[in-house]
């Protein structure tokens, strides 16, 4: 077993903290040890970020952008090693891990557009001989705290535009699977990123608390579960930080009677069970309107039963394990409880054992779910799809509104006017029309509504640059004497 180290100022920094094991979710084997870093080690990382800040922020926007192209190249050239690390620590399938690296490359590509996106307004002649304009500055040291479910994509989403803006970063990945990000930090360093610009610290909630309190950290970008997002936002604001905190989701897919049944069933299955349902934008509730319900549920079950599970490195595997034994137990408990609350287990994933070991839960479909049941009101974060049957479009909207989450909501229909109406009615930050998971491309913004996000800013897109920079507004008079002197 390897004992992992922080990555600070261009080199690995061993920790003196206690260690906890990292497991391979597909085999349950202990594979590495991760230290729970000490506060003084966080201080070293923040000091490294602080030391690197003046030179990095003074580099031209275009020079930083050019360097990002090199980082993207480094990621591409070492793609397979990173995929292997995701497979063994996260339990993703080969297809999911490969897709994550493709998204990661797009994220770095998006960050190279920061010079174009960060232009500021200039107003000539606000009064005679007076012009007003805004100037951006990096906010300073940005701390990123990341979840386990996209161990590469999300930390890069939180940091690449940040560094493009001239900030330096300290990232705390999930303690369950940090190796892929550590490897990327080393690759970035070898590709020419100056020491101290991108630092990775290892640990759990204790060092998150220290990061929140640290006087040299200017901004915190958090992605994780809703209770922790709420906590980080509240504590961070109390410490006068800029904080964007993105939480969990409970995403609804409404299927209208006029939708194509095969298309809708395929979409529901891929959006519910892809990445074992461990996506903040996974569809976890399908709301079926009208008389198509029996046929649609049957079509969903037929497809979900055929999903292949097994060795995650085998390209034919479509569903991997969930992240931990605790997570598997939590999911099983939800399925148990749903039956007690009146849900019908139309497809029971607790019974389908595919491997001798591994925290697998097979696709599960719970029919006749009603708002108020735990499987509707809480985020399960596993391969469990709830089916709510309603008679009207308005009832479907009410089901969405009954949830406290608001990451995404989608509708499948051939009625254009209704689709537009849905855009207005659904209480969520991302809306899909005949698209089950409406995660936007990176040049558009992403933020959930309600308890899915505690923020005024977006995770990506133009708005993210406002979060990652601060501005001065300059009002400048050209003196009459200068004008006359020049003539
Ligand atoms: P988590 O909240 O358990 O952990 C996220 C991070 O917070 C980790 O780095 C962890 O070490 C730290 N942390 C955990 N408990 C803490 C505490 N009490 N105080 C301070 N820090 C703490 O989330 P997870 O299980 O790693 O990830 C899954 C969750 O993330 C799901 O709820 C999912 O919906 C959400 N998520 C949201 C988005 C989004 O964009 N909104 C994207 C991906 C994942």
UniProtKB/TrEMBL annotation:
UniProt KW Nucleotide-binding keyword: no
UniProt-listed Enzyme Commission number(s): 1.2.1.27
PROSITE patterns noted in UniProt: ALDEHYDE_DEHYDR_CYS (PS00070)
GO annotation terms (biological process): L-valine catabolic process; thymine catabolic process
Annotated Gene3D superfamilies: Aldehyde Dehydrogenase, Chain A, domain 1 (3.40.605.10), Aldehyde Dehydrogenase, Chain A, domain 2 (3.40.309.10)
The keyword GTP-binding appears for this protein: no
Aldehyde dehydrogenase domain segment(s): 16-474
UniProt name for this protein: methylmalonate-semialdehyde dehydrogenase (CoA acylating)
Chain's gene name: mmsA
Organism: Rhizorhabdus wittichii
Major enzyme class: oxidoreductase
Listed Pfam families: Aldedh
